[in-house]
């Protein structure tokens, strides 16, 4: 078994672990970068990983897919009052004919989406979002893991040092201490009734 890297903040009062695993960091840890390779969802759920994935998609001229997915997430979890405005903004930017960041979805999904836009709600883009998600998962994500960007991140990732601290700091108390000086017996004097002599 190995200790928590760089240290367990719950027992050492060392906040380095929190700092290195914050939502946004300059240099992620090696364990964090490796976790992005476990699943596509792990990559998208990490703001740092998603940022590097966006850089990769921009080089492949397909960054609009991730931008559309993020816009759908904002619609799904945003405020109810902003739903009609957000739906219209997403449609104009990604789905409308001649849209600046037009996404490629199949005709049936587009038909369902356009039909749902007549009565916009927060889940109206779910079918289109799932289509783009699967497209990125099956096509872009495997290429990202094989790319120089990801390999470079693995090489430059931080490997924290394990701090050697006692696992149970409360055991640092001397074993021969007495809870009260009044209970300590003087040398050669028998302990008082009910008192245990600690040698």
TrEMBL record:
Cellular-component GO terms for this entry: cytoplasm; neuron projection; plasma membrane
Domain RGS: 39-154
Polar residues composition-biased segments: 177-187
BP GO terms, sorted: negative regulation of signal transduction; regulation of G protein-coupled receptor signaling pathway
InterPro entries in the cross-refs: RGS (IPR016137), RGS6/7/9/11 (IPR047016), RGS_sf (IPR036305), RGS_subdomain_2 (IPR044926)
Annotated region described as Disordered, given as residue ranges: 176-199
GO molecular function: GTPase activator activity
Keywords on record: Signal transduction inhibitor
Protein name: RGS domain-containing protein
Organism: Peromyscus maniculatus bairdii
């Amino acid at each position: 078994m190995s200790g928590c890297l760089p240290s367990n903040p719950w027992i050492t009062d060392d906040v380095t672990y929190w700092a290195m695993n914050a939502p946004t960091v300059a240099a992620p840890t090696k364990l964090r970068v490796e976790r992005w390779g476990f699943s596509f969802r792990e990559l998208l759920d990490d703001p740092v990983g998603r940022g590097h994935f966006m850089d990769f998609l921009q080089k492949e001229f397909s960054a609009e897919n991730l931008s559309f997915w993020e816009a759908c997430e904002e619609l799904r979890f945003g405020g109810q009052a902003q739903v009609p405005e957000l739906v219209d903004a997403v449609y104009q930017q990604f789905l409308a004919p001649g849209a600046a960041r037009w996404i490629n979805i199949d005709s049936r999904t587009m038909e369902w989406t356009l039909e749902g836009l007549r009565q916009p709600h927060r889940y109206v883009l779910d079918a289109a979002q799932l289509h783009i998600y699967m497209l990125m998962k099956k096509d872009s994500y495997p290429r990202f893991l094989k790319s120089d960007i990801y390999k470079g991140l693995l090489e430059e990732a931080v490997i924290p040092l394990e701090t050697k601290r006692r696992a149970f700091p409360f055991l640092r108390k001397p074993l021969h201490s007495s809870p009260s000086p009044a209970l300590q017996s003087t040398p050669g004097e028998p302990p008082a009734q009910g008192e245990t002599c600690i040698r």
